Amino acid sequence: MSLQMVSTVSNSSLLQPGFSLLNFDGHVFFFGQKGWPKRSCPTGVFLLDIKQNELKMKPAFFSKDSCYLPPLRYPALCMLRGDARADEYQYIIHGGKTPNNDLSDKIYFMSLVSKTSKKMTFQCIEKDLGGDVPEARYGHTINVIHSRGKSMSVLFGGRSYTPLAQRTTEKWNSVVDCLPSVFLIDFEFGCCTSYILPELQDGLSFHVSIARDDTIYILGGHSLENNTRSPNLFKLKIDLPLGSPAVSCTVLPGGIAVSSAIVTQISDTEFVLVGGYHSDNQKRLACNTIVLEDSKIEIVESVSPEWTPDIKHCRMWFGCDMGKGSVLLGIPGATKQITPDANYFYILRCKGAEEDKEEELITQICSQTSSEDPGDSTPFEDSEEFCFSAEANSFDADDADTYNEDDEEDESETGYWITCCASCSVDINTWVPFYSTELNKPAMILCSSGAGHWVHAQCMDLSETMLLRLSEANVKYFCNKHVDLNKGLQTPQKVACLKKPPMKPLRKKKTMKLSPSTKKSFLRRLFE
What we know:
With 528 residues, this protein is mainly beta. It is 6% helix and 35% strand.
């Protein structure tokens, strides 16, 4: 084994707890960043490019017919092929935490639809299930098994929020172990069935699962209820005859009490188990080789690499499988660093140089990472470790489109995340889509008062119908603060004069004739 240090280039703050690995055609992508994606990469999916021991990140793209894939931390993820030896494949993504710390129960299928030298385009489709649908969770695993020419997905473990009926004021946002049920998911018919097996008594999360043909091996894992790491090795066997599936579980000897371990495949039948934790504050520095042959599993201790002093003395570490027998490991940087969330990264190569060649990875590997510290049981506090993976080989694409977070303006103070008014309630850390047209940023509208300024449509209490009408019509809009002022400054509109019909001439009144004596009498009285 060899250990080599790599450096990140001005974007390590995006690498936060819970990232997931997607490997397409030898190029590694990850998604699930902390916080909602920014304008430079609205999809939240990045290509990891390691060149000359420097790690760079490049935005990925989605097709127009894709659904929105939110950034999910600690989801269950695995590769799905048409059959065990097929070349084409896609990824299944289930559950995980959203940036608002809500738990997702959705299932997404992600596949590569086009590829050029500078751009790779993906398609994401959300799948609907019926039957015993798994509840929202994180820290679980999903694998694909093949039996009698048919395939099914198997989901197990994880954590979820305490049910509403059991919540108290003191523990309103606490998490608990999910029930130790095994879910068989048939995506062809969109149905799901759960099985309760007597051998599985406690819920587990952040365990390791390895699938081969019709068998899944479950190793380690952490139980919140007992605060223990399981020393058992479980063997799940799934038979898919013409009728109902047959699911059985066997407890095997030789397990390892570990959580958050990482598994990488070095040959068709051999794997290496690296890292993890014996307890909340004790890292596991030993390595093991796992051999699968003839429906049997053998776990033996192997030679560990020469760990650096920084790795030995740090309280926690994290990492993920890079494929082809390599693992990316990370440790927190020193607190005196200029960048507070900077980390140090290492590539651990478990195979010799003569064995480091391209090979087909037939076996499904699914592992989760977590520090298992008190922050993990409090969903509104971030865990101290994350799952991050990359390919050791370089991706020879133009560096012009490399994502650099320093080049992007701070959207917490400008752009979509401004404080638009005194009663503004839009916050980058807690915002969720309000209108059907919103994806990863709030809808805004321009107020025409003075030089103009932008306001959030939600803060202005605009209905979706009114918002669409204002966006389509060529009219000026004034926010709640300036609408009355604008009315007072408006010049009254000219009112067209109505054409009045000519009035009828008045009739000439008849006069009375007076006698001369009467006139004299009237004048005398008038001047007296």
